[in-house]
Amino acid sequence: xxxxxxxxxxxxxxxxxxxxxxxxxxxxxxxxxxxxxxxxxxxxxxxxxxxxxxxxxxxxxxxxxxxxxxxxxxxxxxxxxxxxxxxxxxxxxxxxxxxxxxxxxxxxxxxxxxxxxxxxxxxxxxxxxxxxxxxxxxxxxxxxxxxxxxxxxxxxxxxxxxxxxxxxxxxxxxxxxxxxxxxxxxxxx
Length: 189
What we know:
This is PadR family transcriptional regulator. InterPro entries: Tscrpt_reg_PadR_C, Tscrpt_reg_PadR_N, WH-like_DNA-bd_sf, WH_DNA-bd_sf. The chain is mainly α. 60% of the residues lie in helices and 5% in strands. The protein has 2 domains: 8-89, Winged helix-like DNA-binding domain superfamily/Winged helix DNA-binding domain (Arc Repressor Mutant, subunit A), CATH 1.10.10; 101-187. The chain has helices at residues 8-20, 25-33, 46-56, 78-89, 101-107, 116-142, 149-173, 178-187; strands at 60-64, 72-76. A two-stranded antiparallel ribbon has the order 1-2.
């Protein structure tokens, strides 16, 4: 296993099966869409190809229905659980990456129409408010469930990031980025 490289998608598949139990690629796609898909975006087609690769590596066990749709169901092997646990225990040296199209457009804004910036800001305000409402709805639905508590931590991080983005875009729309700078200076030790 030492020479086999596993990607983030590999660990998403292993982790989802560890949390959910035996799963078909379709079930994985749905589970990702309702969980890590909110913050970890990748082509869902990978959820149909990656399990086969992981099964070939001995990290997943594959069972194919003999009749009907011949659905494939994957289960975690002991080697797969060990690989996932080793990855979870290893340090993360990668810096946080934000791949935000709105931020990219903002960076290049001087090459376009100046009126695009306020329009972009207002659109982003709406999007971040909507995402905050989705996340807060999840907190209401699942926040008291003790089985959901380990995953609620990620939701709290998501809420913090959405509120930070909302503060930024709101200040930009109001033409008052200085309020953000002042708040940052006040928080410094």
